[in-house]
Amino acid sequence: MADFETPELKDYIEVPLPQIGVMEGSGPFKAKPDHQEALGFPGELIDDWENVAINKLADLTNRYRGLRVFLDACVKCGACTDKCHYYLGTADAKNMPVARQDLLRSVYRYYHTPAGKFLKKFGMEKLIGARKLTEDIINEWYNYFHQCSQCRRCSVFCPYGIDTAEISMAAREVLDSIGVGQKYCNEIIGKVYKIGNNLGLPEPALADTLEGLEEEIEEDIGVAVKMPLDQKGKDILLVTPSADFFAEPHVDGLIGYAKVFHQAGLSWTLSSHASEAGNFGMFIGSYENMQRVSMRVREAAIELGVKRIVFGECGHAWRVAYSFLNTLVGPFDFLDPNYPVPQHILEVTHDLIQRGKLNIDASQNDHMTLTFHDSCNVARATRMGPKPGGQMVIPREVIKAVCNNYYDMPEDTIGEATYCCGGGGGILTDDLIEIRVKGAMPRMQALKTVVEENGVTHMAAICAICKSQFSKVIPYYGFTMDQIISVHQLVGDALVFESEISESSNESEETENEKE
Amino acid sequence: MSIEVNGKTLETDEEGYLSNLNEWEPEVANIMAKLDDAELNENHWEVINFLREYYEEYQIAPAVRVLTKAIGKKLGKDKGNSKYLYELFPYGPGKQACKYAGLPKPTGCV
């Protein structure tokens, strides 16, 4: 199926010489008019696209001061050039972060800076790298801003902290505003509005799926671990990516959360209304859509009367939840103020481990040697726990508490400097498989290092996109898809359950009167 | 895009998924398989038929564990796992099998 070459994994990452146009193309499939209109965008390219686009760009640079600074501040120092996984994997010059930014910056300069406005009168805009917007540039934006996963690795190395993700989000918002949207993201956001989640999994199917999983767990460990749906009066609303219900290895993570809640005696429920943690509104840079997707979480929390909101393993969901949720759909003064709003499932599990509330036998995972992939959005845009860097520390402490064999990948590929999986930011679609495979190269390189040096057998992740992306692309690099694993699968597999005969049948607990 | 089935032209999307679920007939699956250089045996058909039944009831393809469980019941426990389903449908049981069954492609982080 692949009509491209998978990059070769060497002993270390070689920075390629830039090449012109090797990843030129028409970009991913475009959204259909009904996908666009459901989100409040024009159905197809509008006649007055030039004016609308430059006005939208002005609107965004006025609304977001950061974006304006990012467009103004670059001094072309070159520090970012070799930091993008897509550049390293493709060698296309326009996949250097500075070049990607310049696709938008050049147009911004032409219309919205004093120098551009002055020089264009004399046809001398080239002096400052300014460009008049053309249909070719629209197509170029569409192609290359869908070769950015908004992972923000480049911004870590930029002396000004210029964030290409913000620029790429703005470019996609401008494109949507003139009727040029991506099918993958926009169709999915429409499904959230219509059905409640990215998959389009309706309530009856969700209920049936959860019931099947409950049976599976009981067959497996002899304990009736429940997965409550839409149950009022529970303490915790768990909001998790719909991939957790649907796909492997995600579903084993969901089973892990349920086992943790069960063993800790926490009362929890899922919601069919907010059956999606993911928020693709962020990927398309649309504040309005991000807010509308998030609103479902607030509505579900109120409707079900919960005291806490906990997010499952999803990278960008945690960014939206941790960094933006209160601004988007707050205040959350109806929740229990003794808990952070919202919480990450790993914070919950970590806290339970610290307090000795979980019965763990780490040797259950002795058949594996683990490493951990820091998800870009978690590592670079959020935190967990009270201390800086907790988002890197807490997942590792949890893994090490439930696994005896753990090794980190090389330091310049993890933590704040983590490489994206290659599928984030709305890139996780089959029509972008070439960029996905090539963009995964740096992570695959780092994985190969610990596989060879430390005998690592599995890589754990805490993001639905990372898990799906790796499962799909890892075979291109000679690994197997089952080497990708959910962190909460490791937790779930290490939990030891006592016989439940003495379990009380307290109404407020989900461990109702079952006995084995 | 479109495919020719029994003299009729059926519209598909960019990735070859049938645009109109109701136009599906068994020959659609055979022809799509042929385009992938594959041939369908009765085990493939167990999967395809289950997908269609499930979709009819729930308006969505079954989750992987729902599918593996059902196939395990029909074809034997050793076949009730995604490894076996990937042997049948190497492009991914969720996607390739859905396509042959005339279902829309599963979307999201999958």
Structure description:
With 516 residues, chain A is mostly helical. A four-stranded parallel beta sheet of chain A has the order 2-1-3-4. In chain A, strands 5-6-7 form a three-stranded parallel beta sheet, sandwiched between helices. Chain A is globular and about 85 Å long. The C terminus of chain A is likely disordered. By secondary structure, chain B is mostly helical. Chain B has five helices and two strands; from the N terminus they run ββααααα. A two-stranded antiparallel sheet of chain B has the order 1-2. Chain B starts with a strand and ends in a 10-residue tail after the last helix. The model of chain B has no long low-confidence stretch (mean pLDDT 94). Chains A and B meet through helix 10, helix 11, helix 12 and helix 21 of A and helix 3 of B.
Which key terms come to mind for this protein?
heterodimer; A: 516 residues; mainly alpha; Fumarate Reductase Iron-sulfur Protein, Chain B, domain 2; 2 domains; four-stranded parallel β-sheet; three-stranded parallel β-sheet; 22 helices; 7 strands; 46% helix; disordered C terminus; B: 110 residues; Arc Repressor Mutant, subunit A; two-stranded antiparallel sheet; 5 helices; globular
